[in-house]
Write a structure and sequence with these properties.
Helix content is 29%, strand content 25%. It is α/β, with parallel strands linked by helices and 203 residues long. It has a five-stranded mixed β-sheet with strand order 1-2-10-9-8. The protein has a three-stranded mixed β-sheet with strand order 3-4-7. Strands 5-6 form a two-stranded antiparallel ribbon. The structure holds glutamine.
Length: 203
């Protein structure tokens, strides 16, 4: 896990339950040793600044460009995106997902919102999704697979149909926080992607 800011501990616990060894990444050396990276929820503008301060911005960009498996939740999704709307002018993007995200998209009406979502690849049972000052994906490029959209419910209102989980190649992102609900299926998806890589290396 990128361990500069945000809910790192919750992601570590989810990764361990999903069968991975979770290690904090704060230096380029630590980054070089991981098979995949989780970018936690928190505050994307702060994380962006800390990525620069800890000299991790370019190394993370390079590993993502080279195909490192990654998963970002909420603020992590914002960082992975190519373009952010309603971000700070100096906010850095990792450019690993060909999407336009809108920051604090739900937050204009409500700070948090919960919904049961069908998430492609996570099995038949819906995922109980907790959104906290969450972004949504306003536009997704051709190579981006949409994994989940906000369902049509009374609470969802205008947010219905908005894209809230995506995958492009080995990179996953959700606008919500599965690490907060004890549902490890999204983390299992990431671990599965990282394991495919290891299988290939061993062949
Ligand atoms: N609003 C936060 C941001 O812009 C994201 C919130 C979250 O990660 N729960 O980074």
């Amino acid at each position: 896990m990128l361990a500069l800011q945000g809910d790192v501990r919750e992601h570590a616990a989810a990764l361990e339950r999903a069968g991975a060894t979770a290690v904090p990444v704060r230096t380029p050396d630590e980054l070089a040793r991981v098979d995949g990276l989780v970018l936690p929820g928190g505050e994307s503008t702060t994380m962006s600044r800390l990525l620069v301060t800890f000299e991790l911005l370019e190394p993370v960009r390079q590993r993502l460009a080279a195909g490192m498996p990654a998963y970002g939740s909420c603020a992590g999704m914002i960082l992975l995106a190519r373009t952010v709307l309603d971000g700070r002018p100096d906010q850095e993007q990792l450019d690993a997902l060909d999407v336009v995200v809108r920051r604090n998209a739900f937050g204009r009406q409500v700070d948090s919102f919960e919904a049961d979502l069908a998430v492609a690849g996570a099995g038949d049972e819906p995922v109980h999704a907790v959104f906290i000052r969450a972004p949504w994906v306003e536009k997704a490029g051709e190579d981006v697979e949409v994994l989940a959209r906000v369902p049509h419910t009374a609470e969802a209102g205008d947010a219905a149909d908005r894209i809230v989980a995506v995958r492009q190649g080995r990179v996953l992102a959700t606008a919500f926080h599965p690490e907060l609900t004890g549902d490890d299926r999204v983390h299992r998806l990431l671990v599965g992607i990282a394991e495919e890589d290891v299988d290939l290396e061993e062949r």
